[in-house]
Amino acid sequence: MDLEMPIMDGLTCAREIRRLQRTGEIVRDVPIIAITANARSEQIETALASGMDYVVSKPFRIPDLIPRIELLERKYRAHTSFFNSESSPETIKRMAGSSR
After folding, report:
1. Under a CB-based contact definition with an 8 Å cutoff, are residues 81 and 27 in contact?
2. What is the 3-state secondary structure (H, E, C) of 18-85?
3. Is residue 82 within 8 Å of 31, Cβ to Cβ?
4. What residues pair up with 90 in beta bridges, in sequence order?
5. Roughly what angle, to the nearest 10 degrees, separates helices 10-23 and 89-96?
6. Rounded Cα distance, 42 and 66, in Å
7. Residue range 29-86, pLDDT digits in tens
8. Which end of the chain offers a freer environment for a tag, N or C, measured as fewer CB atoms within 10 Å?
9. What pTM does this model have?
10. pLDDT band at 20 (very low <50, low <70, confident <90, very high)
């Protein structure tokens, strides 16, 4: 997830995903890799504190990113559904970005 996105920046989005997990609206772990050109140590710490699992600085090479993706995939493999059966359509649309 890029940290600088239109509508909602990546830090805010990650915090919202983690909040929805805490409230039970999202019932599984959602792996999030931050992508940013701002890779100073304090910015990386902020991204991790917001709920990102890992931070990659731009420019990056896909072959360098693949091992991290595979690690997160193994960590979260058992989780097949991100939304519980009680998630409202509005919550799902909001998280998908379709309720603008």
Report:
1. yes
2. HHHHHHCCECCCCCCEEEECCCCHHHHHHHHHCCCCEEEECCCCHHHHHHHHHHHHHHHCCCCCCECC
3. no
4. none
5. 160
6. 25
7. 889 999 999 889 999 999 999 999 999 999 989 998 899 889 888 887 755 444 444 4
8. C
9. 0.71
10. very high
